[in-house]
Design a protein that fits this description.
With about 230 residues, the chain is of the alpha+beta class. The protein folds into two domains: about 80 residues, 3-Layer(aba) Sandwich (Glutaredoxin), CATH 3.40.30; about 120 residues, Glutathione S-transferase Yfyf (Class Pi), Chain A, domain 2. It is built from eight helices and four strands, in the order βαβαββαααααα. A four-stranded mixed sheet has the order 2-1-3-4. α4 packs antiparallel against α5 and α5 packs across α7. The longest helix has 30 residues. The protein starts with a strand and ends in a 17-residue tail after the last helix.
Length: about 230
């Protein structure tokens, strides 16, 4: 059985949790607070970031993109019609392009700011970077999420799913990031109905249930967070 080191509101960790659930895998989940920089965790992943997957064989696979590629290479062929990386070269390029968009660009422009300022800092010591949230960073993220939402709406208006006709890693990555922002009530869903309807489809999948059950101690989610028909 595989082990996944994750932080519940690390969006890239949430992406891998969705991937594993879609593949029918139930890993051992070990919560890791990256800002603590535990020596034992740094021995596994010197970068100190989540997610990290540890196979029963002892193989360490660090980083969401690397884990996704690894899982497709080792389990993808056995998924038949449920494989989340397409077979065509051009289609695979498009999925990888959008993975980069959400795992890196969306993370650096939206999720990273909001999760750090509104969630992580609540549990950090001053030495670890804790303290009051930076409202400039929060305002920047709230501005940035609007054009990302419009881009998702643009893609879905032309395709059944974000990268094409089938559910792929791209949908799970986008939904994982939006789920963190949605917990905080910072997604302006009324600005793009197409994007909202797509998110409702992904959110309704069984793989999403564990994410919707996550809670930040002392911080309730937005009222519609776990509502499948919002």
């Amino acid at each position: 059985m595989a082990t996944l080191y994750h932080f519940p509101f690390c969006a890239n960790s949430r992406f891998i949790r969705l991937v594993l659930a879609e593949m029918g895998m139930e890993p051992v989940l070990l919560e890791e607070k990256p800002w603590e920089r535990r020596d034992d965790f740094l021995l596994i992943n010197p970068a100190g970031s989540t997610p990290v997957m540890l196979e029963q064989s002892g193989l360490v696979i660090p980083g969401a993109g690397i884990i996704a590629e690894y899982l497709d290479e080792t389990r993808g062929l056995g998924l038949s019609g449920r494989r989340m990386m397409p077979e065509g070269t051009a289609d695979r390029v498009e999925v990888r392009r959008l993975l980069e968009w959400f795992l890196v660009k969306f993370e650096s422009e939206v999720t990273g700011y909001l999760v750090t300022e509104k969630i992580a800092k609540r549990f950090m010591s001053m030495a670890e970077g804790g303290g009051p949230p930076d409202m400039h960073a929060i305002r920047a993220a709230r501005t940035n999420v609007r054009y990302h939402l419009k881009y998702i709406g643009y893609l879905i208006a032309r395709r059944r799913w974000i990268a094409g006709d089938h559910l792929t890693y791209a949908d799970l990555a986008a939904a994982a990031h939006l789920s963190c922002v949605d917990y905080l009530g910072d997604v302006p869903w009324d600005e793009d109905e197409t994007a909202r309807d797509w998110y409702a489809r992904v959110k309704s999948r069984p793989s999403f249930r564990s994410l919707l059950a996550d809670r930040v101690p002392g911080m309730a989610p937005a009222a519609h967070y776990a509502d499948l028909d919002f």
